[in-house]
Amino acid sequence: MDRLRAYEVFVTVVARGSFTKAADALDTSPANVTRYVNELEAHLRARLINRTSRRLSLTEGGEALFDRAKSILEEVAETEALATTASLQPRGRLRINAPLSFGSLVLAPLWPKFMAKYPDVELDIALIDRVVDIVEEGYDLAIRISRTTSGNHIARRLGCSQNLVCASSDYLALHGMPKVPADLARHLCLGYTYGATSDEWQFAGPDGTLESVRVRWALRANNGDTARAAALAGSGVIWQPRFVIGQDVQAGRLVEVMPGYRMPPIDILAIYASRRHLSAKVRVMVDFLVEAFQDSPLAKGELAGVGK
């Protein structure tokens, strides 16, 4: 028995004063109305309604149940109305996961603009480099820099992350300038723990041919800023997204090596659970990010920063 439906039928019968009128109000048959009431009485093991040929009257138990059931149904209706409003109006807490460096350097300047536009949305930002399970860990949205995503989630492309291979001039003066990927096997390299290629770096050559080289770690960290600091100190060769080290290259603090060889670009993605019943707060955030990245160099993977 659908208990909530049975309570709804019972309350409608009492309010309308008739099984037939209740059936009309509920767009069902009088037989179904009678069945629901009978099943509810059997479940409660109590008679709720006295039936005569002329009128209906409630028993003492029926009167108590009517007041309580009516209140419960009203609360359910109010709760559903709130949920419907939340799906249409952006409000409430929005939990977002993003990589640490990207979140600090690129996304952080955007949040005040979003907050000014949608003051009823409370942002809860978690900067974590590891890939989280957004459903299991309770996130509404995740920003990922990845070539792949789970088939269980929806991915909206925001932009593209170009990667640079660099070293400090001090390091290059001491160890020499690598000219082709194979040269990197003889160098000290600075890696990223969560990188998809791990200790094998892949490049597209001048003619488009893919070349791979297995590198030797001097340091590997689960955050790009740690590897960047080591590279600036002359500790080895680093690969990192342009938004992390692009300004270091422009300022001459790091020198790009093997400019004729490029690491494959990586998509910047907004990940969320499903298109079905998408809440307004997630929808407006994704649209906001798409628009913010649309006119930025990151739309083509060119430079650091958006919304400046």
TrEMBL record:
CDD domains: PBP2_CrgA_like
Pfam families linked to this entry: HTH_1, LysR_substrate
Gene3D superfamilies cross-referenced by the UniProt entry: 3.40.190.290, Winged helix-like DNA-binding domain superfamily/Winged helix DNA-binding domain (1.10.10.10)
Keywords tagged on the record: DNA-binding, Transcription, Transcription regulation
Source species, domain of life: Bacteria
GO MF term set: DNA binding
PROSITE patterns in alphabetical order: HTH_LYSR
Protein name (record): DNA-binding transcriptional LysR family regulator
Source organism per UniProt: Variovorax soli
